[in-house]
Amino acid sequence: MAKAAPKDTTTKYTTGEFQHTIDKCEGCERIIEVETVKYCSTYTMPESKWRLGICNFATHVKPEISVSTLKINPLKASKRAATKGKKK
Ligand code: SF4
Question: What residue owns the CA closest to ligand 1's atom 2?
Fold first, then answer.
């Protein structure tokens, strides 16, 4: 899954500026493999991107968004709105 880095950019990753990816990064399309070591092509410190939750650059994980479906009776809603106006 990890792409091999183009030869002209391999030094960018091997200088120590970029840290290797962590287990949670497995499956991400931004992983670049340089000399059998996997690096993130977007972020220099992948571990810190996962410290507070899901990495916002991750292509393999999406945050769960829970949407509650609340049904509102339009007649009751309009009566409620009308009574709120009268109480003043
Ligand atoms: S974008 Fe995030 S999940 Fe993907 S390799 Fe980089 S740090 Fe890991």
Answer: 58
